[in-house]
Amino acid sequence: MIKLFLGGFPLNITELELVMLVSPHGEVDTIKIVRDKKTGKCKGYAFLEMKDKEGADRAMEALDGSFMGDRQLSVKITIDKPVPVKKPSFKPNNSYSSSPASYVKVGRPGEDTKKKRPRKQF
Is residue 107 exposed (0-12), middle (13-18) or buried (19+ Cβ within 10 Å)? Predict the structure, then answer.
């Protein structure tokens, strides 16, 4: 499966219309038009999965830079970002890191603290 980014299309387009636009170049497996979470309105771009790289290349070559009405289409093959691996904060022998604490307690000093403070002598 090859994932394509398709952007710049009219905001009122449907999934079916996008499939009809791309399918002459190769078999479309899935399509997802990106929409605003609150309003549900189309953001003007989508992600498609094509069955093979040849179809994705043909779609990109034919559609990238073409116009749909007064809007210019952008078609790119996407590359999935690798998922970052988090390093554990402890050492392999299960002892915790000896890095200093990353917090500071803010508040009024207790009564004991006032008594222990040295007084200035002049």
Answer: exposed
